Amino acid sequence: MTALLTLEHVVKAYPLARGRRDRGETATVVAGAPWGRARATTRALDDVSLAVGEGEAVGLVGETGCGKSTLARVALGLESPTSGTIRYRDRDVTRARGPQRKALARERQLVFQDPAGSLNPRRTIGASVAEPFAIHGLLPDRRARRRRVEELLEQVGLDPRHHDRFPHELSGGQRQRVGIARAVALGPRLLVADEPVSALDVSIQAQILNLLEELRRELGLALLLISHDLAVVRHACERIVVMRDGRIVEQAGVDELFAAPREPYTRELLAAIPRLPLAAARGSASAAAEAQPSSSSSSST
Amino acid sequence: MNAAPDATAVLLEVRDLRVAFETGDGLVRAVDGISFGVRPGRTLGIVGESGSGKSVAALTVLGLTRGVRTRISGSVRFAGEELLGAPPERLRALRGDALALVFQDPLSALHPLLRVGAQIAETVRAHRDVSRAAARARALELLELVAMPQPRERLDAFPHELSGGMRQRAMIAMALANEPQLLIADEPTTALDVTVQAQILALLARLRDELGMAMVLITHDLGVVAQTADDVAVMYAGQIVEQAPVGELLGAPQHPYTWGLLTSTPRLETPRDVPLTPIPGRPPSAVHPPPGCRFHPRCAFVREEHRRVEPPLEAVDGAGAHRVACLLGAEARARAWAALGAGATPEAARAAAGIEPVAAAEEAGRSPALHGRPEARSRSSCSHTDDAGLDAPRG
Amino acid sequence: MLRYVVRRLLWAVVLLALVSALTFAIFYLLPSADPAQLRAGRDASPATIATIRHQLGLDRPVPAQYWTYLKALVLHGDLGYSWFSQASVGSLIVDRLPATISLALGALVVWMGLAIPVGVISAARRRSWIDRLTMGGSLLLVSAPVYWLGLVALYLFASDIGRFPLLPGADSYVPLTQDPAKWFTSLIMPWLVLAATFAAVYARLLRGQLIEALSEDYVLTARAKGLSERRIVLRHGLRAAITPLVTLAGLDVGILLGGAVLTETVFEIPGIGSLNYEAIRDGNYPVIQGTVLVAAAFVIVANLVVDVAYRRLDPRVREP
Q: Quick one: average pLDDT of A68-93?
């Protein structure tokens, strides 16, 4: 599998405000003084190296403050790393600017966690989905653009008639679909989804996860799925990266990671997940065979 | 887990509780006839999503939904005393004392400008005649009880200075201040990391055992319920659709919504290659719920009569504690679940249960059962989500 | 924190210098009455005017004048001398300051004393007749110009000209040290008139803030704890709602200390505001400079106090 996006020894540091009590979270934000003084910094990303291949689904998991959201922003070029390199298809794009940066924006897109917050409430759905075309000067003909937007809406399972509706008229799940439609509008090669289902009802989550899977297959997308929920990531991804305090703790193929986690932290994460009794799990016969050696059915912490 | 079912009297008894709000859009029936009981030392898990009415039910038990535009009927008995018509003073005396509530998001549930210790101490002083110093000492004791790291320092901390887990411990400490007989926890771990969630759940279980408290745990996560609850009630659209001891519910779930919850969430216990089966459509409007069985627009096993007749909540087999509100027969359900449990699609399960697929609903936009095209399955299941109905209010 | 305060004070100095330069520039560069002429009087000869101009130093280039001024101020604390009364500007200001301070601080007490209870009751009894009454009344007061209110008050209640003589009329102010009782009664009307608009605005603001605070999750928690409604409104709600009022009050007082011109003029109170007004009328540049500088200093200090206080009131705000 050819590497699509590579991060090499990426460090992202933020200066710490003076006197700020560190709660143990690494992704704290700036409050600089006008004088340029050397001050304590906190590393949101501490020497992270990661590769996503063409069409590959990689899951990024970790707890609050581990740096996964920062990693997403850096991977998308929304923030520049303090040091390290980012390569897209083997080209160094760490400090991409101007037209190169814009071109890259077509290749890698983001699906946000909060479907309501990521859509402009004063714009119609159609306008929001069409915006990427306008920004990149594509499809100037209004009718062609509208047709394309309606195609996209259908592709994500929405009635094209929603084109002229507003976000508040849609449910959370529908809004998330709109966000996805907008993200794939330009035909990116890499989709970064930052907690795409966390804000949704449980019964809707599966709809969105299935949709992402379908689109991935149809469009040959690579997916970087960020979630705090290991079960979601296990279901949707081929490879898992576990982060903690700005570092990658463990990286492995999904089956391997869940069957035989190597790091204590990974094991801790797995052990903490509440389990159903096996009889309630689907495919229970094969599930029994797959049961992890280290799992315990009731928490003992 | 827990000892054998307690034979003592039911501590909290809710009968046919109905809560409706008059709004500009119509009458919102948030809770529409639910009944359940909780005994001392036992935990009831209430499972539901947004619009199920679970949070409104919890708040109503404590009398926190009373208002000019609220219509409440039914009965809520706590230790034999009827709460629904009780004078406000009486309820205030019970709240924070014998009845306690823990909320979902401790960052917004704790006062941002008051110190944590002070917030705990004021709960004590609201119900007990003690000095400030004594209340403060009790606050420290409570922080130690909930295993707050460095409790002495945390007494004077502000909520934003604590991590999510610590804040939730503080909320629990506050709820336990006066040794409640019943603790209602509304999604207490949803906002927390999974390792912290495990710790908090373990803490709640330990406290329940140590203090002999009854607990109602509201959540959307069946795994959480599996781990901490003795009995479970599944709520949908303001009603209880299934109710049973936890082992029975998870071992032999009876209601298609429960099946939907089990098959649509990715679980570590399920093999990776078993696809997720989403529940099509979305939760119904609380102002205009569907006629007949409220789940029927989203149910793969719907029959003609389900659209007209509201299923009563009945025991699955004679005397049992397992009750379900579904018009399908027990046998059909058993076969359907057996198929679903083995990884079959809902269509296959339906066939296995011997249920004929029904023609699409005439109502504009109401989602019928899944169509048969497997490759377009998930997409088509989602495309009928638009309806002009109003979204149900959260909770 | 200390570093922060020191840094702000240094900036304050820079700001004040800027203010004085700006004031200088405005009065010299914009057309207005010639002070030498005003000083000389109507029938003065051109020679007299020229002499006076030379005496006042007005024939020197503007930057030179400014430099002289600045030197005197920084090195000797000398604000110059009034062109009309030979008194030093500094002494004039010091003489008039107590009156302004009495007026401003007294008004503060009155308006907060009115606004807070009214705001709390209106919020707690939302949409009741009390609420509608107070909010309607406040709207009325906000629309009423302060000098109009002052004149109406005098017309009604002044002991010399009023219909219902209750309180001392205009020009009855005496310093506190001289006659406390008279000081107090002479300020009652000015306080009420000055406080009226502020009370209205603050009551509305508090009501809005408190309604919002009472709909927050932490208030639901407080109810779930079984706290009394009174405690919830006052300790939980008010505590959260009052912060913007305190900071706003600090700023408003800072501005008022620079002189509540209209009130002082209507009631003929010898404060900084009326001093400023007279100086502008007379073209008395040194006095204008002095009063503007003092007013600016008060505002700057008020800003600093408010910023520091804010952090004490809301611990979530970062260490500045």
A: 90
**Residue B142 pLDDT greater than 70, yes or no:** yes
- Among residues B280, B275, B308, the alpha carbon closest in space to that of B294 is found at B308
Listing from the earlier edge strand, what are the strands of the sheet with A41-53? A41-53, A3-15, A83-88, A91-92
Q: Please count the residues of chain B.
A: 395
Give a yes or no: residue C303 inside a domain.
yes
| A88-123 residue pLDDT tens | 988 888 888 888 888 888 899 999 888 888 899 999
The reported pLDDT for the residue numbered C33 is: 64
Distance between CA C176 and CA C167 in Å, rounded? 17
Q: Quick one: tokens of C140?
A: 């009325």
Q: Which amino acid is at C174?
A: V
CATH code at position C110: 1.10.3720.10
pLDDT value at residue C52: 77
Cα separation, B215 vs A113, in Å, equals: 32
B204, B137, B135, B136: which is closest to B165 by C-alpha?
Answer: B204
> 3-state DSSP: chain A helix, strand, coil percent, rounded to 5?
40, 25, 40
Question: What confidence category does residue C32 fall into, taking pLDDT thresholds of 50, 70 and 90?
Answer: low
pLDDT of A290 reads 43
The phi and psi torsions of B327 (rounded to 5 degrees) equal -85, -10
For all residues of chain B together, what is the average pLDDT? 85
Interface of C with A in 159-188 (CB under 8 A): none
DSSP H or E run through A53: strand A41-53
Rg of chain A's alpha carbons, rounded to an integer?
A: 21
Is C115 contained in some domain?
Answer: yes
- Which residues from chain B sit within 8 angstroms of residue C226, using beta carbons? 92-97, 123, 126-127
Chains with 3 or more CB pairs closer than 8 angstroms to A? B, C
Kindly report the pTM of this predicted structure: 0.81
* Per-residue tokens: C266: 């209507």
Identify whether the C-beta of residue A77 lies closer than 8 Å to the C-beta of residue A3: no
CB contact under 8 A, B202 and A235: no
Residue with tokens 């119900």: B127
* Residue tagged 């203090």 (tokens): B211
Domains and CATH numbers, chain A: 3-31+39-274 (3.40.50.300)
Residue A111 phi, psi dihedral angles, 5° rounding: -110, 130
Please identify among residues 251-310 of chain B the ones whose CB lies closer than 8 Å to any CB of chain A. 251, 253, 260-272, 274-280, 282-283
Nearest to A157 among B49, B269, B382 (CB): B382
* Kind and range of the H or E run holding B19: strand B12-23
| pLDDT-wise least confident of A134-138, A150-154, C41-45 | C41-45
B357 touches chain A (CB under 8 A): no
CA B201 to chain CA centroid, Å, is 15
pLDDT of residue A18: 52
The number of domains in chain C is: 1
Domain extent, residue C253, equals: 89-313
Q: How far apart are CA B262 and CA C214, in angstroms?
A: 39
Contact B194, A269 (CB under 8 A): yes
DSSP letter assigned to residue B358: P
Q: Is B254 helix (H, G, I), strand (E, B) or coil?
A: coil
| Phi, psi angles (nearest 5°) of residue B39 | -100, 160
Q: Which residues of B touch A272 (CB under 8 A)?
A: 194-195, 197-198
**Residue C55, domain member (yes or no):** no
Q: Do C224 and B158 touch (CB under 8 A)?
A: no
pLDDT at B92: 94
**The pair of three-digit structure tokens given for residue A297, joined into one six-digit string:** 């059915």
Query: What mean pLDDT value characterizes chain A?
Result: 83
Place of tokens 């409790």: B151
- Residue C68 located in a structural domain: no
Backbone angles phi, psi at A87, to 5 degrees: -120, 140
Q: Give residue C126's pLDDT.
A: 85
- At A22-71, the pLDDT tens digits run 444 333 334 444 444 456 788 889 999 999 999 999 999 998 888 888 99
